[in-house]
Amino acid sequence: MTGGVVSRVAALRFFAALNPRQLDQLCEAGTPMSYQPGERIFAEGGDADRFWLIETGSVALDVRIPGRGDQVIETLGAGAVLGWSWLHPPYRWQFGASARERLETIAFDGAAVRNRCDADPAFGYAMLRLFTPVIVARLQATRLRLLDLYATSAQVGRP
Amino acid sequence: MSTAAAPAIVGSAVPQPYRVVSRRVDTADTVTIELAHDAGPLPAFAPGQFAMLTAYGIGEVPISLSGLPDPGDDRARRLTHTLRAVGAVTRALHATAPGATIGVRGPFGTSWDVESAAGQDVVIVAGGIGLAPVRPVLHAVLAGRARYGNVVLLVGARTPADLLYPGELLRWAASGVQLGVTVDRPADGWSGHVGVVPALIPHARFDPAHSVAFVCGPEVMMRFTAQALIERGLPASRLRVSLERNMRCGVGWCGHCQLGPLLLCRDGPVVDYARAEPLMSIREL
Prior knowledge:
Chain A is α+β, with helices and mostly antiparallel strands. Chain A has one domain (1-131): Jelly Rolls (Sandwich). Chain A has helices at residues 2-10, 20-27, 110-119, 121-146; strands spanning 30-35, 40-42, 50-56, 59-65, 69-76, 81-82, 96-99, 103-109. Chain A is built from four helices and eight strands. The mean pLDDT of chain A is 90. In chain A, β4 (59-65) and β5 form a beta hairpin. The relative contact order of chain B is 0.14. By secondary structure, chain B is an alpha/beta fold. Chain B has two domains: 16-108, Elongation Factor Tu (Ef-tu), domain 3; 114-281, Rossmann fold. Helix content of chain B is 22%, strand content 30%. In chain B, α3 links the parallel β7 (121-127) and β8. Chain B is built from seven helices and 15 strands. Chain A binds chain B through residues 58, 60, 72-75, 77-79, 100, 137, 140-141, 144-145, 147-155, and chain B through 29, 84, 86, 127-129, 156-158, 162, 182, 184, 186, 190-196, 198-199, 202-203, 217-218, 220-221, 224.
C-alpha cells in the first residue's frame, strides 16, 4: 500500500526535495482519497487533521459570508498541496474547501506527520521548508488581490 | 532641412484625422475601435507600439495597438485600439460612434519584437486591460504558427465580466494555444481558476531555457509575474514588459515619461525586464 502511495507522491514535484527515507516516512501517513464534483472536503472551523496532495482535478477554497453563501477565494489544481492549518494550533480550518471536479488526492494524517516531525527534526525541517513557501506564496497572492490591481479609481473609491 | 522628413514630423507632432469605422463593446467600460485614415495614413505600427489618440477639444492619451492589420488587406493601415474609460479623454474616446473623427499621432515607442521569439516557446501573460497590447503578439505568432514552439497565454482579470475578448480566448484555445484564465473575484457559475495570474505560471507547459515572455498589466502584477517566470528558469533578458508613464510628446522631447535613464515614449513602452527591474523597484521613480 505504502509503495503505491510513494510512487504516486513521487510522480508530483511538491515533495521532490525529500530524500527516499523521508518520502517513505511521509507516505506511511498517506492514503489515496477521491472526491466527487461539488463534494465538501472540509468546512471552515472544522478540525484540521490532515492535508492533501492534489493529483488530478481542482479544489475551491471558500469562506462563508452571511447572506452571500460560500464565496470562492482561490482555486488549487494538480500538484498543489491543500491545507496547512494542521501544522499549527488550534488545528482548525480557516477556510472551507470543496472539489470542483472529480478529484484524486493523497490525504496525509496531520497528527501522524506532526509526531514524525517532532521525533525526527531533520524530517520536520524538511517538511517546514516545503510548506513555508506555500504559506508565503498564498500570503503574497492574497496581498496582491487586496490591492485590487485591475480596478479603476472609481471602482475602488479613489478620487 | 530635408522635405522627406515632413510626413514623419506631421505624423509625430500633428494629429492626423482618422475615422472610427467600427466600435465593439468589450466590457462595461472597455471598447475596441477600428480607425481608418481620412488623409494620408501614418507609417505602419508594430505590435507593442502606441499612438496618441486625440478627442478633439478634450485632450490626448497614449493607447497601444490592440490588433494587427492583415498586410494583404487594403485596410492594412487601419488601426485597432482597445481602450478603457477611466478619465475625461478616454471617456470621450470610449463614447465615439462609427463615423466620428479623432486625431492620431504615431507610431511611437518600441515594439515587442515578436520575430525574436522565432524557434522558441512563447509565453504571454496579461492582466486586465493589459491583454490589449499583447493581442497583436498572439496574432503575429498565430499567423506564423509553425515558426514557434509552445504558445502559452495566461490571463488575469478582476471578474469574469471584465475579461477582454472572451470569444477570441476560446478560439485561441481551440487553435492550440495553452490558455489559462484566472479571476480575482468569481461570479456565480464561474468554473475557472480563482487567484492571481502569477499562480498559473508553475503549471504552464513551456521550456524556460528556450522561451520568450511578453508581459503586460499593472506594474505590481508584472513584477510578481516576472518573479514567477524567473523562478521557472526564464532569463530576465528574454522577458519583456510594457511600462507606462505620463506619455505626452511621444518622441522623447518633453521628458514627462521619464523612468530613470529611460524616456518610455521613445525607449519603451516595451522594455527588457533585465533593464526594467531595477527601475521598477525605486520608490522615487
